[in-house]
């Protein structure tokens, strides 16, 4: 995809969700099993949200069965959801393959004009996180999707997502007593939660001070990158859920140890932000 010049300003963040918020569910990549989608929608309703299913979420491409409908329809669903002023957040149903096929069909100027919203996904959705950051300047949430095992069967992961979307920020201490810093010192910055295999094939300009996060999608355990900001994804890169931190500090004999929950899952932007 064609990328815009690197942004130097902090990314714009969305407002928190509240009971009654409308959440659009889209499928930018692979086809979605109807039963798993319905189960995920049930969880959103339990949270007090009003889920709105995009028109083509349950479509299957007529020739390429690994895609949830045509590229044009998947792009149209995402754009329509984002530009709908009645929608407060957009959550992907699943990853898979195909987001990079539709990313250039989205009118990113219209998306930018609509303003920031919570956007949730991981794995193949990486390319959309990049697009939201580079083309619109929005922070997005690299986290579990509604029709995936990480959302349906992993209660701690699901609760962490809910808390990140709804609750005020808190400060947590991360790390084990036996952990040790490989490189002593202190650092502060941002990172990008990503599945590197799904990222653009060319170098992507980033705000100075950012670093990559990891998405190892073969495992259910959501992890967070220890590289400066947040990257919450189903992955295999840490022994416990949601490790790593946005504004982390490391001292001899200790791991990077502090984080704000409000920034736990947001892969883009300053580590020191809060949002309304």
From TrEMBL:
LD-carboxypeptidase N-terminal domain span: 23-143
Ranges of Polar residues composition bias in the record: 216-233
Gene3D superfamilies: Class I glutamine amidotransferase-like
Any Pfam family: Peptidase_S66
InterPro entries per the UniProt record, alphabetical: Class_I_gatase-like, LdcA_N, Peptidase_S66_N, S66_fam
PANTHER family: MURAMOYLTETRAPEPTIDE CARBOXYPEPTIDASE, MUREIN TETRAPEPTIDE CARBOXYPEPTIDASE
Protein name as it appears in the record: LD-carboxypeptidase N-terminal domain-containing protein
Region (Disordered): 1-21, 193-235, 248-276
């Amino acid at each position: 995809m064609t990328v815009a010049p690197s942004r130097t300003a902090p990314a714009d963040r969305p407002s928190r969700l509240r009971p009654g918020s409308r959440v659009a569910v889209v499928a930018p990549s692979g086809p979605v099993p109807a039963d798993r989608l319905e189960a995920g929608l049930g969880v959103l309703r339990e949270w007090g949200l009003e889920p709105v299913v995009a028109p083509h979420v349950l479509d299957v491409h007529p020739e390429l069965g690994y895609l949830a409908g045509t590229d044009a329809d998947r792009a149209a669903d995402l754009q329509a959801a984002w530009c709908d002023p009645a929608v407060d957040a957009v959550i992907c149903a699943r990853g898979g393959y195909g987001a990079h096929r539709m990313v250039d069909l989205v009118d990113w100027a219209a998306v930018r004009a609509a303003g920031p919203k919570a956007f949730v996904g991981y794995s193949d959705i990486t390319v959309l996180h990049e697009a939201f950051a580079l083309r619109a300047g929005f922070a997005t949430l690299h986290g579990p999707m509604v029709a995936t095992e990480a959302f349906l069967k992993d209660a701690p992961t699901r609760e962490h997502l809910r808390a990140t979307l709804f609750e005020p920020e808190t400060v947590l201490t991360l790390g084990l007593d036996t952990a040790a810093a490989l490189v002593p010192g202190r650092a502060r910055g941002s990172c990008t939660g990503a599945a590197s295999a799904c990222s653009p094939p060319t170098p992507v300009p980033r705000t100075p001070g950012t670093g990559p996060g990891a998405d190892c999608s073969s495992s259910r355990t959501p992890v967070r990158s220890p590289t400066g900001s947040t990257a919450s994804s189903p992955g295999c890169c840490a022994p416990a859920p949601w490790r790593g931190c946005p504004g982390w500090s490391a001292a001899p004999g200790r791991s990077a140890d502090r984080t704000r929950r409000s920034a736990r899952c947001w892969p883009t932007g300053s580590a020191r932000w809060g949002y309304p």
